Amino acid sequence: MTRSLRPGRRGFLAGAAATLMVPATVRAQEMRLRCRYDDQIVTYRLRDNPTVRDLLSLLPLDLEIRDFSTNEKIIHLPRRLSERGFEPFGDEAPGDLCYFLGWGNLALFHGPYTFRNDLIRLGHLEGEVTPLLHKGTYPVRIEVV
Fold it and tell me: Domain containing 136 — which CATH number?
């Protein structure tokens, strides 16, 4: 009995899907998010996880950025994001961009913070945290770079 060397329909579709997914993964890892407010601009290199992809599906957005506590700025989103990007981490650092599970907002950290199973890391700041130290509440534009 001889077997055909041609892939079946399922094999063809699976191969095509896998081929299409590789460029998307590469693009997601190279994605950057920019926040502009007042005269400040911050740019983040994004991680590749389901929460980031959900955030990207909302962009561009015009919202409000404001100070919260002594170590972060926050941006409330128009809806909650997927929590499938949750992964515990222990290397918290100023410059991290996170999604806060409790309120469903973005947290832009400019100072030290502690992970307590309530954050999903979305990316990290490119450059200095200095623009995040600009105090006040402002309209903010969030977009893919």
Answer: 2.40.100.20
Token duo for residue 118: 């309530």
Q: Which domain holds residue 132?
A: 31-144
> Which residues, including other chains, have CB under 8 Å from residue 26's CB and lie 6 or more apart?
none
Q: How many domains does the chain have?
A: 1
In whole angstroms, give the CA distance from residue 75 to residue 91. 23
Instruction: List % helix, strand, coil for the chain (3-state, nearest 5).
Output: 25, 35, 40
Answer whether residue 107 is part of any domain.
yes
What is the average pLDDT across 120-127?
98
CA–CA dist 43, 110 (Å, integer): 13
Are the C-beta atoms of 97 and 16 separated by less than 8 Å?
no
Is 11 part of any domain? no
Report if residue 21 sits inside a domain.
Answer: no
Quick check: is 89 in a domain?
Answer: yes
Does the structure show a pLDDT above 80 at 4? no
**pLDDT tens sequence across 62-109:** 999 999 999 999 999 999 999 999 999 999 999 999 999 999 999 999
Convert the pLDDT of each residue in 6-18 to its tens digit: 444 544 444 444 4
